[in-house]
UniProtKB/TrEMBL annotation:
It comes from Gadus morhua (Atlantic cod). It is a multi-pass membrane protein. Its main location: membrane. This is Chloride channel protein. GO terms for molecular function: antiporter activity; ATP binding; voltage-gated chloride channel activity. It is found in: Endosome membrane; Membrane. Belongs to the chloride channel (TC 2.A.49) family. The chain crosses the membrane at residues 51-75, 140-165, 214-230, 242-266, 315-334, 340-357, 413-434, 440-459. SMART domains: CBS (SM00116). InterPro entries: CBS_dom (IPR000644), CBS_dom_sf (IPR046342), Cl-channel_core (IPR014743), Cl_channel-4 (IPR002246), ClC (IPR001807). One of its GO terms (cellular component) is Golgi apparatus. Keywords: CBS domain, Chloride, Endosome, Ion transport, Membrane, Transmembrane, Transmembrane helix, Transport.
C-alpha cells in the first residue's frame, strides 16, 4: 500500500524565509491544468468548473482593482482632512478639509478662496483672534502637538500589531516576487494596519510619501483574494503572477498612471512576467484607476493632485539645464538613505514639525507643494511664485502670458524654497527607514521639483533680462512666453526619482501620465537617462536593491553581470574541509536513520543515491516533504516502526522473514533534479539559477554525485567575487 496515494496537508509547501522552486510550481500547475482539461470532457458540470477556473484570474484582477482603488481613495481623503486638522477645523462639518470647507461656503470669493468664516484656525477658535504673536505661537504649538500625536499613534500601531507594515514595502515585494517566502508580510493585519498608519504617518508631516506603501497595500489585496481560489492559494508560482499585477494596480492608483503602473511592475519589481500577466496587470490597473476616478478624492476630476497643463513648447537650448537637473537627480540618488540607525519616530516628527511650520513651503503637505511647483503661472494664480511685475498695456490671452520680471514675492519664494530644499534633503535621509509606513517617491520628487523650479526661474529671468544673448536670440524674443518654470520642476522631480530608483521607461510614462504632456517626453527622457548614468557611476544599486542587500534577502538580480572565470566545482558543497554530503539511499535506510538525518542537519533537502558506495544519483527529496511524509506514515500506516525500511523505488527491496511493514516514499521524490557537471562555468550556473528560478542544483561527474549548489551559495560566491561580505546573505 502507498499511503501517499491520498494527498496529505502541507506537502509541497515551503517554510518561512525560504525560496520556492519555480520549476516544481510550474510543473504542478501544468499537471493540475491537464487534469481539469481531461475531466471537462466527462460532464457538463466539469466543463462549467473548467470555465470558472479559466476565468478565476480575471475575477481576482477585478477584485484587486476595486479594493485597491477604494483604499487609495479613502487614504487620499483621510490624509487631506488630517493634514488640515493640524492647522484648524471646519465649523460647519468637522470632517471637511480646508478646501472642501471653503468651497461649500457661500461667503467665499475667488481672490480669497482660502479664507472663509466656516474654517477657523485653532488660535481663532480658542482665543477669538487670528492675528498677533500669541495666535501664531498657539497655532505653532498645536501644529507640533498634532504631528507628535499622529506619529506616536502610527509607530505604536506598527510596533504592536503589524511590524511588517513599516517602510515602503517595495524591496520586500521585489524579493517575494523573486520567489522568497515571508509569511505575514502580505497578511490581513498588515493590510489593515498599513492602511491606517499610512494615513497617520503622512498626516504627521514627516518627509515621506504614500505612493510606495500603496504598492504594498495593493499586493496585500492581491494576496487576500488569492486565498479564495485554490489555483493561486496552493501554488506559489501562480500567486506571484497575481502579485505582479497587484503591484501595477498599486502604482496606477498612487500616481493615476495605469500604463506607468504596468511598466513599473515589468521594469522594477517583477521577476517572472509572462505575457498573460501583462494583460491581467493592464486590466487590474485599469479597474483600480477607474475606481479611484469614481471616488474623485481631489475634487478635480483627475486621478492625481498635481495634474498640470503647459501652453509653451520647449526649445533645444533648454536641454542643457534639463540634463543638469538629471545630474542633480543622479547625485541625490547616491545619498545613503535609510542607512542611519532608526531614530525614535516621535523625535524626528517633533523636529520636522518645529522646523517645517515657519516656512509655508514645508508646512503644507508634500503633494500640495509639488502641485504648486509644477503649476504654470496663469493670470488667476495667487501663489507667491507667480508674483511677477505685469506690464500695464498687456492684453494677451490668459494662457499666453509673456515672460515678465520677477516681483518681490518671487524673490521671497526663492529663498524660502532654498531653505525648504536643504530641509527636505536632510529630513528625508533620516525619515526613510524608520519603523512606520514611508514611501520615497514623493519626497524625492519634492527635492527635484524645488531644485527644478529654482533653476526654471533663474533661466526665465536670465532670458528676460538678456534676450540678446546668443543662446536666447533665436527662440526668445522680447514679449514672448519662452520659459515655463513649472516644466523645470517636473523634469527635476523625474530626475531625482530616477536617480533614487534607477527607473527609466516606467518613470517617463508615469510623469507624462501625471501631467498629460506628451510634448515633454524628450526633456523627461533626457533627465531620466542622465540621472541613471550619474547614479550608476557611483554604484549600480538603486535604493530598493540597497535595502534588499542590507536585509540579507536572497535576491538574484537579473541585471547583475557575472564575468568571473570560476567553475561549479569551486562553489559546490561540501568543500574539502567539510564532512561528506548528507544523502539517502534508494532502499537501505530505516525510518529511524531518516529521522536522525533530519534531526541532525538543517539542510532543505537530500539527494537520493543508489548506494553510498556508488553514489549514483536517483533524485532529490525536500526536507519538509520528507518530514511530513514520515510523520503522517507513523500516524496513518499500520505497523510502521523505527526499524521499518524506507524505499524510493517502484517495488520494495527483498526483505528478511517477518519484517515490519516498509515505507514507500517514491511519490515525494523528484526524479528529475537539475544537474550540472563539476566543470560547468559559474557564469552558466548563475544564468540557470536566474532564468529557471532554481532553489538548488546537484553537481555530478559521469552520473556520480559530487556535491550541491544552492541559491544561497551562488549569492555568497557573487558577493565574494565583488569583494563584499558573503555572510551578509542570511536566508536560504
Amino acid at each position: 500500500m502507498d499511503f501517499l496515494d491520498e494527498p496529505f496537508p502541507d506537502v509541497g509547501t515551503y517554510e518561512d524565509f525560504h525560496t520556492i522552486d519555480w520549476l516544481r510550481e510550474k510543473s504542478r500547475d501544468t499537471d493540475r491544468h491537464r487534469k481539469i482539461t481531461s475531466k471537462s470532457k466527462e460532464s457538463m458540470w466539469e466543463l462549467i468548473k473548467s470555465l470558472l477556473d479559466a476565468w478565476s484570474g480575471w475575477v481576482v484582477m477585478l477584485l484587486i482593482g476595486l479594493l485597491s482603488g477604494t483604499l487609495a481613495g479613502v487614504i487620499d481623503l483621510a490624509v487631506d482632512w488630517m493634514t488640515d486638522l493640524k492647522e484648524g477645523v471646519c465649523l460647519s462639518a468637522f470632517w471637511y478639509s480646508h478646501e472642501q470647507c471653503c468651497w461649500t461656503s457661500n461667503q467665499t470669493t475667488f481672490d480669497d478662496r482660502d479664507k472663509c468664516p466656516e474654517w477657523q484656525k485653532w488660535a481663532e477658535l480658542m482665543t477669538g483672534t487670528s492675528e498677533g504673536a500669541g495666535a501664531y505661537l498657539l497655532n505653532y504649538l498645536l501644529y507640533v502637538l498634532w504631528a507628535l500625536l499622529f506619529s506616536f499613534l502610527a509607530v505604536s500601531l506598527v510596533r504592536v500589531f503589524a511590524p511588517y507594515a513599516c517602510g515602503s514595502g517595495i524591496p520586500e515585494i521585489k524579493t517575494i516576487l523573486s520567489g522568497f517566502i515571508i509569511r505575514g508580510y502580505l497578511g490581513k493585519w498588515t493590510l489593515l494596519i498599513k492602511t491606517v498608519t499610512l494615513v497617520l504617518a503622512v498626516s504627521s508631516g514627516l518627509s515621506l510619501g504614500k505612493e510606495g506603501p500603496l504598492v504594498h497595500v495593493a499586493c496585500c489585496c492581491g494576496n487576500l483574494f488569492c486565498s479564495l481560489f485554490s489555483k493561486y492559494s496552493k501554488n506559489e508560482g501562480k500567486r506571484r503572477e497575481v502579485l505582479s499585477a497587484a503591484a501595477a494596480a498599486g502604482v496606477s492608483v498612487a500616481f493615476g498612471a495605469p500604463i506607468g503602473g504596468v511598466l513599473f511592475s515589468l521594469e522594477e519589481v517583477s521577476y517572472y512576467f509572462p505575457l498573460k500577466t501583462l494583460w491581467r496587470s493592464f486590466f487590474a490597473a485599469l479597474v483600480a484607476a477607474f475606481t479611484l476616478r469614481s471616488i474623485n478624492p481631489f475634487g478635480n476630476s483627475r486621478l492625481v493632485l498635481f495634474y498640470v497643463e503647459y501652453h509653451t513648447p520647449w526649445y533645444m537650448a533648454e536641454l542643457v539645464p534639463f540634463i543638469l537637473l538629471g545630474v542633480f537627480g543622479g547625485l541625490w540618488g547616491t545619498t545613503r538613505l535609510g542607512r542611519y540607525p532608526v531614530l525614535e519616530v516621535v523625535g524626528v516628527a517633533g523636529v520636522t514639525a518645529l522646523l517645517a511650520f515657519p516656512n509655508p513651503y514645508t508646512r503644507r503637505s508634500t503633494s500640495e507643494l509639488i502641485s504648486e511647483l509644477f503649476n504654470d503661472c496663469g493670470a488667476l494664480e495667487s501663489s507667491q511664485l507667480c508674483d511677477y511685475v505685469n506690464s500695464p498695456n498687456m492684453s494677451r490671452p490668459l494662457d499666453d502670458i509673456p515672460d515678465r520680471p520677477a516681483g518681490p514675492g518671487v524673490y521671497t519664494a526663492l529663498w524660502q524654497l532654498a531653505l525648504a530644499l536643504v530641509f527636505k534633503v536632510v529630513v528625508t535621509v533620516f525619515t526613510f527607514g524608520m519603523k512606520i509606513p514611508s514611501g520615497l517617491f514623493i519626497p524625492s520628487m519634492a527635492v527635484g521639483a524645488i531644485a527644478g523650479r529654482m533653476v526654471g526661474i533663474a533661466v526665465e529671468q536670465t532670458a528676460y533680462h538678456h534676450h540678446d544673448w546668443i543662446i536666447f536670440r533665436n527662440w526668445c524674443r522680447p514679449g514672448a512666453d519662452c520659459v515655463t518654470p513649472g516644466l523645470y520642476a517636473m523634469v527635476g522631480a523625474a530626475a531625482c526619482l530616477g536617480g533614487v530608483t534607477r527607473m527609466t521607461v516606467s518613470l517617463v510614462v508615469i510623469m507624462f501620465e501625471l501631467t498629460g504632456g506628451l510634448e515633454y517626453i524628450v526633456p523627461l527622457m533626457a533627465a531620466a537617462v542622465t540621472s541613471k548614468w550619474v547614479a550608476d557611476a557611483f554604484g549600480k544599486e538603486g535604493i530598493y536593491e540597497s535595502h534588499i542587500q542590507l536585509n540579507g534577502y536572497p535576491y538574484l538580480d537579473v541585471r547583475d553581470e557575472f564575468s568571473h572565470r570560476t567553475l561549479a566545482a569551486d562553489v559546490m558543497r561540501p568543500r574539502r574541509s567539510e564532512p561528506p554530503l548528507a544523502v539517502l539511499t534508494q532502499d537501505a535506510d530505516s525510518v529511524e536513520e531518516v529521522e536522525a538525518l533530519i534531526k541532525g542537519t538543517d539542510y532543505n533537502g537530500f539527494p537520493v543515491v543508489v548506494s553510498r558506495e556508488s553514489e549514483r544519483l536517483i533524485g532529490f527529496v525536500g526536507r519538509r516533504d520528507l518530514t511530513l511524509a514520515v510523520k503522517t506514515a507513523r500516524q496513518k500506516q499500520e505497523g510502521v516502526v523505527s526499524s521499518s525500511l524506507v524505499f524510493f523505488t517502484e517495488d520494495p527491496p527483498p526483505l528478511p522473514d517477518d519484517p515490519p511493514p516498509p515505507l514507500k516514499l517514491r511519490r515525494i521524490l523528484n526524479l528529475s533534479p537539475f544537474t550540472v557537471t563539476d566543470h560547468t562555468p559559474m557564469e552558466t550556473v548563475v544564468d540557470i539559477f536566474r532564468k529557471l528560478g532554481l532553489r538548488q542544483c546537484l553537481v555530478t561527474r559521469s552520473g556520480r554525485l559530487l556535491g550541491i549548489i544552492t541559491k544561497k551559495d551562488v549569492l555568497r560566491h557573487m558577493a565574494q567575487m565583488m569583494d563584499q561580505d558573503p555572510e551578509s546573505i542570511m536566508f536560504n
